Structures are given as structure tokens and as C-alpha cells.
Amino acid sequence: MAARTRKTRHDDETRRRIKAAQLICRLESCALGSLELSKEQIKCCDILLKKVLPDLQAVHTTEASTEISQAEWVRKMIQLDPEIDAS
Questions:
Q1: If residue 25 lies in a helix (H) or strand (E), which one and from where to where?
Q2: How many CB atoms lie within 10 A of CB 20?
Q3: Is the Cβ–Cβ distance between 71 and 31 less than 8 Å?
Q4: 87 residues of the chain, pLDDT tens digit each
Q5: By the 8 A CB rule, do 49 and 24 touch?
Q6: DSSP assignment of 36-70, as one string?
Q7: How far apart are CA 22 and CA 28, in angstroms?
Q8: d(CA 33, CA 10)
Q9: Rounded CA gap, 29 and 26, in Å?
Q10: d(CA 28, CA 33)
Q11: Residue from 57, 70, 84 nearest 28 by CA
Q12: What is the value of pTM for the model shown?
């Protein structure tokens, strides 16, 4: 039998991104009304996401400022970092 050429375990960064994607999915479900989360759960998700995702306040943008829904924001975040899969 040939040796495996792919790694069988995820590294720490991959595990963090998978967990972040799971948190994003839960928050999106809550925003869309299909899941109910307590204030404490939402705050915990916020704290954990701040540890993994970059703080958008520190990012300079030249794009015109427009209000978007949370679901659209999540889609844009996934486009910026395609390794985060929120499916």
C-alpha cells in the first residue's frame, strides 16, 4: 500500500478557520431567524471571531460606505478569505 501523500490532520490555522466558519454560520442563521441564540452565545461568538478574523476597523478602504445586511457581510468576508467555508 502506498504512503499517504496528503496530510491526514489539519494544522492549527485550518482548525481555527473551520471553527470560525461554524460560528459565522450560527450567527447568520440567528440573523436570518432560523436559529435563536442568547445574548451570551452571541457575545461568545463575537469574542471568538475577533481572535481569528482581522478587525475590520483597522482596514483602510477606498470603497464608498454603504449599509449591508449581516448575511451580505459574511459573504464578503468569505470572498476575502476563501479558505473559510460557511456551508
A1: helix 12-32
A2: 21
A3: yes
A4: 566 666 667 677 777 777 888 888 999 999 999 999 999 999 988 888 887 777 666 555 566 666 778 888 888 887 877 666 544
A5: yes
A6: ---HHHHHHHHHHHHHHSPPGGG----SPP----H
A7: 10
A8: 32
A9: 5
A10: 9
A11: 70
A12: 0.48
Query: Cell 471571531 appears where?
Result: 49
Rg (CA), the chain: 16
Q: Which amino acid is at 47?
A: I
Cα four-point dihedral sign 43, 55, 80, 5? negative
Map grid coordinates 494544522 to a residue: 11
Kindly give the interhelix angle for 39-52 and 12-32, rounded to the nearest 10 degrees: 140
Place of cell 460606505: 65
Contact 77, 53 (CB under 8 A): yes
CA distance 76 to 38: 25
